[in-house]
Known about the structure:
434 Repressor (Amino-terminal Domain), 7 helices, mainly alpha, 103 residues
Amino acid sequence: MKSDALFTWMVNSLEYMTLPSIHLLTRKEFNMKRLADPAIVSSRLKALRKEKGLTQIAVSSLTGISLPAIKQYETGARIPDSVNIYILSNFYKVDVRYILGKI
């Protein structure tokens, strides 16, 4: 097995491993319950965008995150996945934990 293929297999295998106490939760439910309060995430993302004087369309085009996703993040309908949280935290120059409401 090539190293890239082995790495991909390992990552995909880890994705399906869960702790016994949360094995019945979907990924969305897990993120909503364990990572952050959607209301905090949405209000912080909206406030950060407005502080920079940007529209949702501008944030979408500058970050590469789809416009529907940006809208869902700001309304609290969805919490960004780990990649998009990282992208948004770098874009706004804040700690990931700030966006998640942990600090």
